From TrEMBL:
Membrane-spanning segments: 104-123, 143-161, 217-239, 245-270, 291-309, 315-335
InterPro entries: Citrate_utilization_prot_B, NarG-like_sf
Gene3D superfamilies according to UniProt: Transmembrane di-heme cytochromes, Chain C (1.20.950.20)
Name of the protein described by the UniProt record: Tricarballylate utilization 4Fe-4S protein TcuB
Protein species of origin: Paracoccus siganidrum
Amino acid sequence: MLDERTTPTAEARRQIEICNACRYCEGFCSVFPAMTRQRAFADGDITQLANLCHNCRGCYYSCQYTPPHEFALNLPAALALIRNDSWERLVWPSRLGALFQRSGGAMAAALVLCLAAFFWLLAALRPEQGAGFYAHLAHDAMVALFLPAFLLPLASVAWGLRRYWHEVGAGRPRLAHLTGALRQAAGMRNLSGGQGQGCNFEAEDRYSNSRRWFHQAMMYGFLLCFGATASGTVLHYGFGIQAPYGFFSLPKLLGVPGGILMVIGAAGLAAGKLRADPALGAAHAWGGEMAFILLLGFVAASGLALYAATGTALVGPLLALHLGSVMALFLLLPFTKMVHGFFRLAALVVEEQRRRGE
């Protein structure tokens, strides 16, 4: 059994107290201004600071107390461990989160292949009528399969956010708190080190905004793809206009550039992760984080390939692979790094509350 002094929370508290006394990094990101408002840190305070951290690593490369100094500070890694632990503990079922962090690549690949095989077999029961994708799988069958696969993981994340809110001792949010948090999330200001010159994630003592740009490409690409699906739903149920849709329809005008942005974002994030020092993050979760990036990239790439193969014999197998990867992404959402977006937004809302003294 670990001594209390060596637990991740105790170690993070030790490092935060040293940083709070030094304050050299006060302007680096949201973590340090939040830190300076307190003198003592409860476990919930540590969880909140960890979820504010973007792991830009600028504080590590600027710190005079990193190894071999006796203080041996590695704040990015200490907060990364707490951050990953908060997702695993608070989102139900917690054991699956820990399992994905350890075996994410194998878990994601197996799930995609199994689900793709399921959709391939299901296509044998193809409807007598239908065009485009619906010639291989009926619309009602898609809705029946994907609606619970989408809503149940979101319910799990919502439960985790409720527990997070209670753990960090947050009050009732106001509209101003939410809008302020959304502004920060939209611009990803803290991924630039908080000062605009970039962060040190993969470039060590050099500044780079590449990680911020690739994150933005991934986030906005994902939102465009979600918008494409939502617009298709509105066209189908609201106006009786059924798929397949032409290139100049809203679903395609949103989905195609969204997919391209996601592929670019996934490639850039994966390359940056390969260059970065794993010792400055949650090293045990490296494989799970990389698996999630590659899964996002595969979802987008398979969707683009499916669109390019329209009218060919490749539609059937590509559709099975694409649907299998999309469903795998939905089902794994609460246990992958995708959940960090929800928790980080919650942390930003809490920070807006506390910054305003409300």
